[in-house]
Write a structure and sequence with these properties.
There is one protein chain. The protein has helices spanning 3-10, 32-44, 49-65. It starts with a helix and ends with a helix. The chain is mainly alpha-helical.
């Protein structure tokens, strides 16, 4: 896990920028209805399901870091 990820999980408000070229595969188990909803919303926005998940996670983490 990155330094930023560890600090965010630990509750530290000090953020450390991450290199943009690091990529980690994260298996994600979701109920079928959530996958269908995710794919439908992503399609409506012109995104893939993966892009939509990254966008949602980025927005969530940005809001959390503002606390």
């Amino acid at each position: 896990m990155s330094v930023l990820g560890v600090r965010m999980l630990a509750g530290s408000k000090e953020a450390v920028p991450l290199p943009t070229d690091e990529v980690v595969e994260v298996p994600l188990l979701l109920p079928d209805w959530q996958v269908q909803a995710l794919e439908a919303l992503a399609y409506e926005r012109g995104l893939t399901a993966g892009e939509m998940v990254r966008q949602l996670l980025g927005e969530f983490l940005a809001r959390r870091s503002q606390r």
